[in-house]
Amino acid sequence: MPWNSRYRPHWPDLHGTGHNALMPELPEVEALVAFLRERAVGKPIARVDVANVSVLKTFDPPVTALGGLTITGVTRHGKFLDLDCDGLHLVLHLARAGWLRWSDELSPKPPKPGRGPLAMRVRLADGSGFDLTEAGTRKRLAVHVVRDPADVPGVARLGVDPLSDEFTVERLHEILTAAKRAQIKGVLRDQSIIAGIGNAYSDEVLHAAKLSPFHPCSTLTDDEVASLHAVIVDELSGALGRAEGLAARELKDSKRSSMRVHGRTGEACPVCGDTVREVSFADSSLQYCATCQTGGKPLADRRMSKLLK
């Protein structure tokens, strides 16, 4: 069945024009990894056509070098997808509005370069393959062809994976201590510190942990750090479980319905019934519950937000 009719994830506000675009984060990228392992591994690449050259972030090896190689593995580095093609790596980052559209029967005609959403097409030898598209005007979709995934700057600077054995309570304590008085929301989203958590899941983690998004990292007690660690692992593991094996429409609805505060401004908090509030920034926003997270004090909705006195 074509990816775009069953398996394609439909992210709300995927055009990236709104603050609450549910861009793919660790659980959703892991779901894509599982899908591509099932559909693409073991198949030779017939050709790669680039419709928008701006998505290519590398030139050596050239993208044409992928033609004739076989996809031997698919993995994830944070939010990066990594397709191993006989030792060359096609590394993709879908960013805010990127889209992977699988088809069991791609059109045999090469795509025409233009200003449309299509950025690149990977056609496999059996006629199947996928298109990479990106909606909106802010183009952040990134494609790398490298000999080693660590050659991708974004991969090289990734922090610890929150679902790996390295992510222990002690490691989290070290991270928060080093962050000093930095706000916890920003640290959770920083891919160079913890890889894979974005805007949506950081909101959910902080709500479950009953922490203000602007809580200074180094002031957390040992018990709060242990609780935060457990919440991070539980939230991401739960999302992985919900995403496993879901069709596209179900994946979208599952992610949206699982959010307690993210993207739910004005709705009732499912824990206490208070109204979910929002703080807006230049190109993003966060959602939180004042009763659950800030002692009932609303956060100032301005770019450099602080707790209202």
UniProtKB/TrEMBL annotation:
Q: Which GO terms describe its molecular function?
A: 8-oxo-7,8-dihydroguanine DNA N-glycosylase activity; damaged DNA binding; DNA-(apurinic or apyrimidinic site) endonuclease activity; lyase activity; zinc ion binding
Annotated ranges, domain Formamidopyrimidine-DNA glycosylase catalytic = 24-141
Checking InterPro entries in the record gives: FPG_cat (IPR012319), FPG_N (IPR035937), H2TH_FPG (IPR015886), Ribosomal_uS13-like_H2TH (IPR010979), Znf_DNA_glyclase/AP_lyase (IPR000214), Znf_FPG/IleRS (IPR010663)
Entry's SMART domains? Fapy_DNA_glyco, H2TH
Q: Which PROSITE patterns match?
A: FPG_CAT (PS51068), ZF_FPG_2 (PS51066)
Q: May I ask which residue range the UniProt record assigns to the signal sequence?
A: none
Question: Does the UniProt entry include the keyword Metal-binding?
Answer: yes
- Keyword DNA-binding among UniProt keywords: yes
Q: Which cofactor does it need?
A: Zn(2+)
UniProt xrefs under PANTHER family: FORMAMIDOPYRIMIDINE-DNA GLYCOSYLASE (PTHR22993)
**Family to which the UniProt record says this protein belongs:** Belongs to the FPG family.
Protein name per the record:
Formamidopyrimidine-DNA glycosylase
Upper lineage is: Bacteria, Bacillati, Actinomycetota, Actinomycetes, Jiangellales
